[in-house]
Amino acid sequence: MKKVLFFAAALTASLQIYAQKKDSISGKYTLMDEVIIGGVRKSKDVSSELASKLPLKNLENPQVTASVSPQLIKNRNFFTQGEMLKNATGVAPSWAGISPYYSIRGFRTRSSFRNGVNGYVASDMDPANIAQLEVIKGPSAVIFGGGGATMITFGGLINRVTLKPQQTTFADITVMGGSYNLQRATLDINTPLDKDGKVLARLTGAYNYNDTFRDQGFSKTFFLAPSISYKISDDLNIQLDAEILNKTATNNPLYQVALGTAKSADELHLDYYRSFNDNSLTLNNKAVNIYGKVIYRLSENWKSETNLISVNNKTPGDYIRLRLDDNSQNVTRRVYRMYPENITSQQIQQDFVGNFKIGSVKNRLIAGVEYYHYLYGIASKSMNFTKVSAAGTDPENANFNNEYISGQLALKPYGENYKAIQDHYSLYISDVINPLENLSVMLSARINYINNKGTEDLLTATTTGDYTQTAVSPKLGINYQIIPERIALFANYMNGFQPQAPQSVNGQMTNFQPVYGNQWESGVKVSLKKNLLDAVLSYYNIDLTNAVRQNPNDTASYLQDGEQRSKGFEADLESNPMKGLFLHAGFAYNDSKLIVSDALTQGLRPVDAGPKLSGTWYVNYAPQSKALNGFSLGIGGSHYGKDLMINNINGSFYTNPYIVINSVLSFEKTRYVFSLSANNLLNEHYWYGGRGMVTPGTLRQVILSLKLKL
């Protein structure tokens, strides 16, 4: 009944606006078209519109985004999102499980959004249908929702902008081969389905297989992404997309570290090529995500957008953690088998977007309602395998395989078998007004009601931890173009929230309010003529409040007074100073500290905050001479500073700073493109990680590809 009442208001508003359509005044501002990456519009403007869901150019938007642009994607042989994100300013790799994490502005996050709505998958989605990959910086609850099941964190979010059906007919087929038995094939087929071009269809897909430089390990992926757009009339357009993924892989080595003689990953002196794994122990991620969108132009000034999303993920199989024991001299393998892990969600968004004037003041407004249903379920067993020397031979290795592990786990009871359900109901509004032609002011807010129905333990037939919470999230921004369409000063206040489950001690249940993250940010944006320079320089301060911690004076109670601060500076620059030359560079500095925490960590940098310093750069040059027509050469790199895995008053453990260089040489003609690329060109041995675990990075990988444009 609540759902019916919740959306009755949206339907009523839609009908009222529709009834006023005939009375609309001509000559008003037109609404933005659907975002289609075609290489004409600047990638920063595309990111700006998706970040705000409003027709705002980057210079008008007080929020900061970083993007891996279509030009950059075109110039590189990317086949993972992780490689793409090495080109995004302020993003660093974190935990290296089959569901990888990244750190942004001192907080961990994942790649969980697609075209501005939830697009969760247990592993990173194959990038075959990605037109642009963007990072929306800071807490973004007003437009994208709160934390927890909705996958939002306070540092920012990662959003995939996908390819859209086009008016022309084409077919692109790409094949790749490379080091570690890389075998990859992708297709991109587009065609109108009727003579008027009202029904457009596009199909992208990929097959990917690769081994690893280690003694065991592989990954195999099948991916399909069909997309249909049906323009029923000038006012009504319906879009239907799907993403279908089937990925089978061993997980990367995840060494769980402890304080001891070694203070850094390099001091562990582990065998870089050893996996302590077997190719018969795999995880299988199956995902079928469906996206529907209905766009209806209510008048010259208003449109309705309805998003319907269904996400279904199943992940059966084995996840292996390598615990370093005895001062890191020995390794204990712990096997977790999932039967399976299930993650499903359904999301309904109803937005009304307007572009109009009140008197002489221009308004661009979005008002919306949202319902989000999330279910997480898992059944699992686990066991420790015989402890072995980290450096010596493993006499029991022959038994570490699926047959033996299956036999041992069959004798064990389930360690966990439960499901948990959340329902989110939201109302939100954002209005950007122009009191002066070059001055824009953003006023936004969201109210979010969470009904967590608790965790149902299927082993004991009990449900615990149910709660309800309401969160209010404001967002304010101001933007002034000191030189119209060229240089703008901006400032913003942004808020995010994460729901907090009750805690029980000695049978006493304590309820909490949501944890909040509040960001203040200011800076300058530059967009010079002829793409000479596009730049964003910003300083931010994020204060996390209301964190739950155990009472140091009474272990049977909790306090909700924890505080954390994350502040820093970012610079993101992109330039086409001359024909054929493309430059990109980014720098990020982050200073994070636990202000109010427990005695072990208070005043220290939190783990999982990522490195203090990171940077990225890329140069691509295509000679303009007739003799070298079609050739281009690109080279770039990423630097990541020291990253803490353990940090308390007893000591710390960290991954060492490292630099990874990548390069690509390509030759393009009308009907084909040859590319030769090298990831980790200098064969750097490095470690990265998160959640108290470290993983060796991939060594040099040389890739040859051929793209046919039919």
TrEMBL record:
One GO CC annotation: cell outer membrane
Keyword Transmembrane: yes
Bilayer topology term: Multi-pass membrane protein
InterPro entries: Beta-barrel_TonB_sf, Plug_dom, Plug_dom_sf, TonB-dep_rcpt-like
Annotated keywords: Cell outer membrane, Ion transport, Iron, Iron transport, Membrane, Receptor, Signal, Transmembrane, Transmembrane beta strand, Transport
UniProt-annotated location(s): Cell outer membrane
Family per similarity comment: Belongs to the TonB-dependent receptor family.
Entry protein name: TonB-dependent siderophore receptor
Species of the source: Flavobacterium crocinum
